[in-house]
Design brief:
Length: 278
């Protein structure tokens, strides 16, 4: 993505709290993701979890990087990663990867913001960025994500019983919805008879925050060793600013013997204009 195009999208996010990047994913990757989801749901007998947050007719899978390497392509995708790097920090972390397969009859999920657990007064900088990838068309009828435009500027989180207008983020398969972590949103109701809506959420957070999904326990050491450097860093196996997150003075990657994320604390401290940050 060229810088002018990215800047235009970032301006939209600043104003509305979200944007939609059309044609972000090529057909080959979409096919591979759909096939992987079908296989994993079958192999693991994935069923709805039966609550309002996760859905009564929605099949969800978490920690996707540990389930199939095809998902490795999403967090580092060149059309999407720059949004997280610009809105958060170039040393942001991957907070989670979740498949959300919304089935017919699913009800409207409650409005929420993804960084709602952060105890900093709103409005504020984004502490998270959520990207929702459409692997089928998202329509109002089949449960497209609902958005409250401009809500990242609100001074409070959604309140029970509060009435607020929200719009469906309708988009074609291959598009990606980019959401400021403070923007109110939710999964929509699927009012179709037989149409499933397949989306994957890839969430990023500031590098000093705790990730929503625990990458350290979900990823086996041999998987981390096989990861490309940027993905291993996103998962937290390098050190934030060259210091945060070490294991006895070593990056988690060095502790595991992963060459792609081998760092020593303090010796690897990032520099800014030639001066070590502290």
């Amino acid at each position: 993505m060229d810088s002018a195009t990215l800047s235009g999208y970032l301006e939209t996010i600043e104003d509305q709290g979200y944007c939609i990047v059309e044609d972000a994913v090529d057909e080959d990757l979409m096919r591979k993701i759909r096939n992987a989801v079908t296989r994993l749901e079958d192999e693991n007998d994935v069923q709805p979890r039966g609550n309002r947050a996760e859905g009564f007719a929605t099949k969800r899978m978490y920690n996707l990087l540990a389930k199939d390497e095809v998902f490795w392509e999403l967090p580092v995708h060149p059309n999407i990663l720059p949004f997280a790097e610009h809105l958060l920090d170039e040393e942001c972390l991957l907070s989670g990867t979740t498949c959300m397969h919304i089935g017919p009859g699913e009800v409207h999920q409650g409005l929420h913001s993804d960084d709602g657990l952060v105890s900093v007064r709103r409005p504020r900088i984004p502490f998270m960025v959520t990207t929702i990838w459409a692997f089928t068309d998202f329509t109002e009828e089949n449960g497209a994500t609902r958005i409250v435009p401009g809500s990242h500027k609100f001074d409070h989180e959604p309140r029970k019983g509060e009435k607020v207008d929200h719009v469906p983020a309708e988009m074609k398969a291959g598009s990606v919805l980019i959401v400021n972590g403070g923007t109110w949103h939710c999964g929509g109701a699927n009012n179709t008879q037989d149409e499933w809506r397949l989306g994957v959420s890839v969430q990023y957070c500031q590098g000093y925050l705790r990730q929503q999904q625990n990458q350290y326990y979900s990823l086996r050491p041999e998987v981390v060793k096989a990861m490309p450097e940027r993905l291993a860093a996103l998962c937290g196996f390098t050190l934030y600013k060259g210091i945060m997150g070490h294991v006895d003075g070593e990056s988690p990657g060095r502790f595991l013997g992963a060459d792609s994320s081998d760092e020593i604390a303090y010796a690897a401290m990032r520099t800014k204009n030639g001066v070590a940050e502290s």
